[in-house]
Amino acid sequence: xxxxxxxxxxxxxxxxxxxxxxxxxxxxxxxxxxxxxxxxxxxxxxxxxxxxxxxxxxxxxxxxxxxxxxxxxxxxxxxxxxxxxxxxxxxxxxxxxxxxxxxxxxxxxxxxxxxxxxxxxxxxxxxxxxxxxxxxxxxxxxxxxxxxxxxxxxxxxxxxxxxxxxxxxxxxxxxxxxxxxxxxxxxxxxxxxxxxxxxxxxxxxxxxxxxxxxxxxxxxxxxxxxxxxxxxxxxxxxxxxxxxxxxxxxxxxxxxxxxxxxxxxxxxxxxxxxxxxxxxxxxxxxxxxxxxxxxxxxxxxxxxxxxxxxxxxxxxxxxxxxxxxxxxxxxxxxxxxxxxxxxxxxxxxxxxxxxxxxxxxxxxxxxxxxxxxxxxxxxxxxxxxxxxxxxxxxxxxxxxxxxxxxxxxxxxxxxxxxxxxxxxxxxxxxxxxxxxxxxxxxxxxxxxxxxxxxxxxxxxxxxxxxxxxxxxxxxxxxxxxxxxxxxxxxxxxxxxxxxxxxxxxxxx
Length: 508
Ligand SMILES: [Zn+2]
What we know:
CATH topology of the domain at 337-485: Isoleucyl-tRNA Synthetase, Domain 1
Bound molecules: zinc ion
Helix content: 40-55%
Shape: elongated
Strand content: 5-15%
Distance between the termini: 49 Å
CATH superfamily of the domain at 337-485: Isoleucyl-tRNA Synthetase, Domain 1
Structural class: alpha/beta
Mean pLDDT: 95
CATH architecture of the domain at 337-485: Orthogonal Bundle
CATH class of the domain at 337-485: Mainly Alpha
C-alpha cells in the first residue's frame, strides 16, 4: 500500500489559536482525507510546541506552573482541532517524556560530532521582562513586549554550525524542484538566506528554564529549533541509537505544511539538522499563505480576532471548512470577515449545493415516490452534463496533486452549477405534466442524482459531514474516490433516504 506522512507545524501554546491559525489543520485534514480516499495509508501528525520563555512568562502572569499552563492550552488547541472535524492520527506534545529524551540525545550527538559548539550569544536584554532579544526582534530599538529600553548583553550559549551544510543544502534544493512550494518561496530561501551565507544558529539558552535541559550542561535549555522541529521524527520512533520499524516505515515525511512565516526554519534549519543526523529530508515543504481579517493581520492589539469555534457554533463546521479551503489561494493571502462568510454560504453552499440537492431529491420524491428512476430516452443536453461529470475526478486529482485545494473545490462547484443549469434547461416540472415524457423525466432525474453522487464523493475531504448526508440519502455504498470515476453507478429502483438539512440561506 502506498504511504503518505503529512504534518502540520506544532501550534505554540501561548494562547488560543484564532481562525487563521486554524486554517493549517483544516488544510492538512483535507489533504489527509483525500489521500486516504485515494487508497493511501496515511499518517497525519499535529500537536503543540510547549517550551520557551514566552510561556514561562505567561504562566507566571497567570499564577500557574508552566506545565499547568501548557496542559490547559494544549487541551484547548486539541479541542478546536476536534471541532474542525480533523482526522489527525497523533496529537504530539513537546513536553512528552519520550520527545524530551530523544531531543537530548540528538543534541548530544550533534555536540559529540562537532556540529554544535559552545560560544557566546550577543543580544539585547530587557531587565523588567528578563528577556533576550535579537536586533531584528526589537521594536524601534525598544523591547517588543513592554516597549522599554534594552541594553546589550551576552550569555554563554551553544551554536550549530549551519554554514558547514549550506552548499549541500543549496545543491539539494536545486536538484529537487518540488522540495519547497510555492516556487517563489524556494527562490526567496536561496537568494535571501542561503547564498549570502548562513550564520551559526544559537541552539541553547540560559536566560530561562522552561525547556529541555542540555543533558551534559544543566545550566542550558535547548532552544526551540532542535526541540520543536524534531517532533516530526521523535514521534514516529526515531532514536539516535537505533532505527525503529515505525520510523523506517514513515520517514521521510511526504509533506510538512507550515505557515509562510516559518518556512525558513523548515527549509533551512530543519533540513540541516537532518543532514547532520544523516537522515533523508522530507519530500516537500509547503509554506501556505495567511488568512487576513479584511486586509489586516489578525491580532489582539487590533481587536480583530475571529475564533474558529465561534464561527462553527453559528454556521456549522462544514461551512467554515469550505470557507477556509476555498478562500485561501495557493500563494497569496486570503481574507475573512463574518460578512464574507455569510456571502459565501449563501452563494455557494445554499444557492448552488443545497438548492441542487434539495430540488433534485424532492422531485424524485414527488414524481417517483422517492425511488431512483430508470434511465429512459437520452438527449444531447444529457451528454454535455455527463462529459463534465466524467472528467471531474481527474480534474480534482490534478488540483490536489499540486496542492491547489481551493481550485479543486471550484472544479466540483462548476459541475454543481452546471447541474442547476441542466434543471433549468430540461424543465422536469414540464416533463412531469405529460404522461408521455415520464421516462424522459426519469433520465433527467437519474442524471442529476448520478452527478450529485460523484460530487458528494469528491466533496468528502473538504466537507465530510455534508458529503455523508448526501451519500446516505442516495444510498451510496462505495464512497472511495475510485468510484467517482464510474458512470451511472446508482441502482434504479432503490428508495432514497430522507435528506438531513444541508445549508440554509442566512439573512445578514
Ligand atoms: Zn520588556
